User: What shape does this take?
Amino acid sequence: MQNAAFAVLALNWRYLAFEVPPEQLATAIAGAAAMRFAGLNLTVPHKLLAMQLVDVLDETAKTWGAVNTIQFQGKNPAGVWLPLRDFESHSPSGIRSVGFNTDADGFANSLREDLKIHLPGSRALLLGAGGAGRAAAVKLAAEKVSELYLINRTEAKAAALAAEIQKQSPQVTVHVGYPPGKIDLVVNATSLGMKAGDPLAFDDHKFSLSRAQAAYDVIYRPAETPFLALARAAGCRTANGLGMLVHQGAKAFEIWTGRNAPFGVMRQAVEQSIYGH
Ligand code: ATR
Assistant: This one.
């Protein structure tokens, strides 16, 4: 999707994928800076580790507690830090890495766009308290849901997350457990559903999807997980994590290039590459 966006805006840039072991992440970031890369994306398992490795944390990384996007900046003769794209004709006197997080906004944008959800005042059930679950929970609270229910295989992780959110966002009521009555949204933020034969991330004796208006799965491959298929059959509006993937990528594109992302082109490129249409 990034290369499709560069092409349509006639930018002579390239997006490349590199597999880096965690113990080499610091070296890889320093190497990219030395080669004057405009920036990087980081994915599992690097997002938490990068918090300690970048020179500066943007507010988005501080808020969501993870870095998925790095922008390299150079120091100009006046001592001002600017994106490296601004140094075509002269060399910077120093280079630094700035860590951003575009995942959380990508998640909320996708909920609004793909599920037409109005988050303020809504009741939500979140399945999962790992890396993705944590960011989703903090974002839902920041978007002012009124009640948030957390379920996780390892309940202690859900309890720790609930306590953290309750402290940060006292206006939200956070529970560990299943919600009574109807809810507006249920989100799967576990990895269950990626592999054929995975169980559901919730206990269907304790919760029925027919009580939810809308269901979101952060997984986008397969396009319809058993969770989403069941939700659709139960009458929920459903969406998978493709919109989140494209939104976080579009935001990263804008950080690196300073240009508006061609969202439709990026979405189409991802759909083509993942689903073949
Ligand atoms: P990510 O960054 O993708 O969120 P993660 O931090 O490893 O990855 O989190 C994976 C999530 O899927 C967790 O909520 C995990 O539950 P635990 O916290 O109990 O590990 C959940 N998960 C993974 N495999 C699972 C399984 N077989 N049954 C239930 N939950 C599972």
